[in-house]
Amino acid sequence: MDNHKNSLTDISYFPGCSLATSAKENNLSLLNLCRRLGFNPVELDDWNCCGSSSAHSIRSELADDLAARNLFLAPAGRPLLVACPSCMLRLRHMYIHLRDDEAARGYYEDKWNRSFDPNLNILHFFELLPEANLPNLAKDREHSLNGIRFVPYYGCMLARPPVMSREKNYYGLMEKILSSLGAEPLLWGYASRCCGTFLSVARPDVVRPMVNNIALGAKETGADCIVTACAMCHLNLEIRCDLREPVPIFHFSELLSLALGEDDHKGWFSRHIVDPEPLLRSKGLI
Amino acid sequence: MKKENYSDLGETIKSDDSDFQFASEVKKRSGTDFNMCYHCWCCTGGCPFSHAMDYTPNGIIRLVQFGLKRKALESSTIWLCVGCNTCSTVCPMRIDMSAIMDTMRQMALEEGISVAEPDILNFHKEVLHSIEHYGRTHKLEIMLRYKIRKRDWFSDMDVGLKMLAKRKLDLMPSKVNDIGEIRKFFTDVKHKT
Hints:
The complex is a heterodimer of chains A (286) and B (193). With 286 residues, chain A is of the alpha/beta class. Chain A is built from 15 helices and eight strands. Chain A has a four-stranded parallel β-sheet. A four-stranded parallel β-sheet of chain A has the order 6-5-7-8, sandwiched between helices. In chain A, helix 12 links the parallel strand 7 and strand 8. Chain A is globular. By secondary structure, chain B is mostly helical. Chains A and B meet through helix 4, helix 5, helix 7, helix 10 and helix 11 of A and helix 6, helix 7, helix 8, helix 9 and helix 10 of B.
C-alpha cells in the first residue's frame, strides 16, 4: 500500500465551494478516482471561491481578483486539477486573460509580489480519463456497471464564451468512458440544457419546469438515471424536480469510482436527496 | 413586470429618448462588438430562460443598438441571464452575450436604475457577502440571509430541511485563512487596464 502511495504523482487540486460542502460525495468519489488513476490531489493551499456567478454578474473586477488569487496560489510545475465546471470556466477564463494581457498580469504581480505562471496547466478532471485505460483498472471489466442505462447530462459545461470556443471540448466523454465500463448511454435532447443554476434560489418558478422537463426527457428514453459532471447541476436536478417518481442523479465520479470497485460509497449515496440505492441494488452494483 | 409575450414583438421603435453614447459604452466595457448582430434569433432560440424574460436576448442587443438605454437597463432579461453561454455557443457571429449582460447589469446598478428582479440581485449580494466574510460561499447563511431580506420564511422550507438532513448544508463555513487579502478586494479601488 505504501509503495502504491509513493508512486502517486502530486497534482494541485481546487475543490471549489460546492465540492467542499454540499457535494462532498462528489469530492470523496473524485479523490478516490484520482488515486486509482495514479494521482495524489494536493488541495490548493488557502484557495478561495472562484467568484461563482454572482461576482461576474455584479462586480467584474471582483470576479477577476477572486479567480486571479487562486491562480497565483498554484505552485509552479504542477497541473491544477479543477472539479467543478463553473470554477473551471472562471479560472481558465482568467488564466487566458492574464496570459494574454501584460498590464493585467503586471497589476497582480505587483500587488502580490509573486509571478504569474504562464505555463500553468489547468485541468478539468475529464482530462485525466482518456489516457487512463479504465476498463483495465475495473475489477470486472464489461460487467462493472452491469448495463445501467443512463443519459449524460453536461448542462452548460460544454458552452463557453467566444474567447474560449477553441478550447478542448468534452462532448461524448461521459458516454464513451461509462460504456467502456459496462453502462449503456442513451441519446436524448437535454444533454446540454442549462440546469437553471442560481435562479433555483431566486426564481424557483422558472427553474422547476425546466428541471422537470429534463427529468421527463430522461424518463422518456427509458433511462435508469441521469449522470452529471457538475455539482450545481446535481443539486438543482435533485431539489427542483417535483415529479412523483424522480430520476436518480449520479455524479460522474461516483459511477466511475463504483465501477473501479471502490467500496466506501455508503457516505456518497446517503447524501443524495433522490435515493439511488434501490436502483444500484437492483443492478447488483452495491 | 413580467409580460405574457416578449414585449418587443410588434412594438413601434421609438428612438426619441436615444442615448448614442450608450452603445459605445456597452461595447467598450464588455469588449464585445454587438453591431455584428444581424438578429437571426439563434441566441433566443437557444436560451433556456427566454420565455421568462421581457425582452429576448437579441432584443436587448437591438435596444442597445437603438440607444434605448433605460428600457435595456430596466429589463428583466439582464437579471434572468445566468451566463450559461448557450447563446454565444450558437451565435454565428460569436458575440459574447454573457459579457454584454454583465456590463448592463453593472451599469444599471451604477446608475441607480430600478432593478426588475430584486430577488436575483439580493441573492448575488448575499453570495458576495459570504465571500467577503469567509472567502468561500457558506450556503446555509446565504439562504438564511436571503430569506430575511425577502421576509419569506416558508417557501422552500421543505427543500432546506431535506438538504440539512442529507448534510448538504454545513452549519459552519469553510474559510480562507488569509481573509484580509479577500476583504481588500472588496474595498480597493482599482485602476486596471
